[in-house]
Design a protein that fits this description.
Blueprint (H helix, E strand, L loop, with lengths): L3 E7 L32 E6 L13 E3 L19 E6 L2 E5 L8 E5 L5 E5 L31 E7 L5 E5 L5 H8 L17 E7 L2 E7 L26 E5 L4
Parallel strand pairs: 1-3, 2-4, 9-11, 9-12
Antiparallel strand pairs: 1-8, 2-7, 5-6, 5-8, 10-11
């Protein structure tokens, strides 16, 4: 299960303002008419209920929004850079990888359609129109667009389930999930049959709830034994835990 990804995002730079002067047939020395640069595009992360994991980020790591266009004469402003929207599963947590000290948490996307701007586009530069004054009626200066730096972020999927099923390997977690829901996890007599979390929906009358089977945790998992303990993030949202024990 692809439930964690590290990516680099960069918003678009702002476009440059332009130095330009009005030129008409009977106005040879018109005033400044340089337009502003367009703002850079944003990088936006959006939760999508149709996506189940983060596999889309497995092969590509760097994501860039478009730059804003430069301004033009006749006070024409540059076009804003196109936003880049990255879709992730509902339940994705966004963390700042480059955070030094403090909490790296940025946001928790718990609802479908929820959006987060992880990199805001740079502001466009001002054209020379803005620099005209009573003492300088023909300014030959304009601003450059605001540049943006790359940011490193971590995406972590934390499954949204009502009940988590936990326990040592091979104690019957998959069997319980298969009996209680329509899920069909792999069931065998050897340890670590389940290598990733498995979801199932159980129905009781007119109501339903989601169960999540978590791979077996063994002594020393925090040292990397077995499958480690990374899967524990998937029980952080559960309302109830069922801890299965071997009755033999």
């Amino acid at each position: 299960m692809f439930d964690r990804a590290e990516i680099i995002v960069k918003a678009g730079d702002g476009g440059a303002g332009v130095v330009s002067f009005r030129r008409e047939k009977f106005v040879p020395f018109g005033g400044p008419d340089g337009g502003d640069g367009g703002d850079g595009g944003d990088v936006i992360i959006m939760a999508d209920s149709s996506i189940t994991d983060l596999r889309a980020f497995r092969r590509k790591r760097v994501y860039r929004a478009r730059h804003g266009q430069d301004g033009k004469g006749k006070k024409k402003h540059g076009k804003k850079g196109e936003n880049l929207i990255l879709t992730v599963p509902v339940g994705t947590v966004v963390l700042n990888k480059t955070q030094i000290g403090g909490d790296p948490f940025i946001a928790d996307l718990e609802e479908a359609g929820q959006q987060l701007v992880v990199a805001g586009g740079g502001k466009g530069g001002l054209g020379n129109t803005h620099f005209a004054s009573s003492t300088n009626q023909a300014p030959r200066i304009a601003q450059k667009g605001e540049a943006r730096e790359e940011d490193s972020i971590i995406l972590e999927l934390r499954l949204i389930a009502d009940i988590g099923i936990i326990g040592y390997p091979n104690v019957g977690k998959s069997t319980l999930l298969a009996v209680a829901s329509a899920a069909r996890p792999k069931i065998a007599s050897y340890p670590f049959t389940t290598l990733e979390p498995v979801l199932g929906v159980a129905e009781v009358g007119q109501q339903s709830f989601v169960l999540a089977e978590i791979p077996g945790i063994i002594d020393g998992a925090h040292f990397g034994r077995g499958l480690g303990h990374e899967f524990l993030r998937h029980i952080m949202r559960t309302k109830l835990l069922i801890h299965l024990l071997d009755g033999s």
